[in-house]
Amino acid sequence: MKVLRTLPPLLVSAVLLAAEPGADPSQVRHRLSAVQARLAQVDQQLAALKKRRKGVLVELQDISLQAERVRAQAEGARIQRDQAQMEVQRITRRKEDIQKDMARLRVELRKQVRWMQAVGPFAGLGVVSSESDVKGFLERGRYLAYWRSQQRKRLNAVQTLQGELTIREAELKAALARLAQEEQAAAQLQASLRLNEGRLQAFLDGLSQDERRQQAVQSELAEEALQLERMLGQLAGRARADVFQSSVAFSALRGLLPRPVEGSLAQGFGERLHPKFRTRTVNSGLLIATGSGAPVTAVAEGRVVFADLYQSYGPMVILDHGGGYFSLYTHLRLFQVSKGQVLAPGEPLGQAGDTLDGSRLGFEVRLQATPQDPQTWLKQRYR
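The chain above was modelled as a monomer; its predicted structure follows.
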């Protein structure tokens, strides 16, 4: 399933939102982790791209990936700054609470001192008529001394904690200043991003007017499709002991499969002529328009036989359902399965990624290496 403007599995808009004031710190950390994971994946794709034979598609992917890398860096810098700001606010609130506690303790201690000064050291003794009167006076004196000692210890502890918080707040403010510098650098990265996006658009505009390069694209697409068919042929030709045996025959599930992702039909199965680039391609599956990062699930029980980057298909997962049937999930943002893992129907395998035309999932069903129309297998067809 190959169409030029839907090939590279790249983000074309910010995936993550900067943390809002008062946001849950755990959510901020999750967003930052997601940005860092996306950046690592982009770097991995760039490294894989260097190993591929040079061509129009490789050049197009390189421009798009460079733009995405800058976008992820800028987004990460903003989230880190917001994370530090939230920590400063939390420490500041805690410091104010401690100052209130200190003020209350000081008032109580002053009252106690004034009371002790007023009553004097022998107050309450009066006329000692028995040994029990003396004993009671001494016990009260020891209690008051203990109470004052505990209050002093607590005040000392609060003062120590205030000193620690002051130091910590200074450290956080220094970190915030550093992150502000990073945000300034991120702003510069945004300017670089605009240049990259302009370069990408100029490349696409030039391609639409260059018949020779259009033919090169079509040739590269055909070569990639042929290589994928060869790989599927090798998977289908494995020894019987290595073939997955499903509890339910996949051939019996025609018209009963669930959707791999919720969305609408962007491109159907079969041959089409690209309206802008005039390249004629054959879609070996469906291209489904969906939300960026939408969960992608297995349509049937199957074993993961491929989970890796694959040329301009991007991150791709292939499930072996037995009987020579395979399902393919392409243009993923990321996958969360590994080779050899067995998935149940409806089990998550990754997230939908972004292409130059928006958020898309490529979905294919194959018998051996032969493409099948996925719509005929789905219980609810895409429209």
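The longest helix spans residues 131-208.
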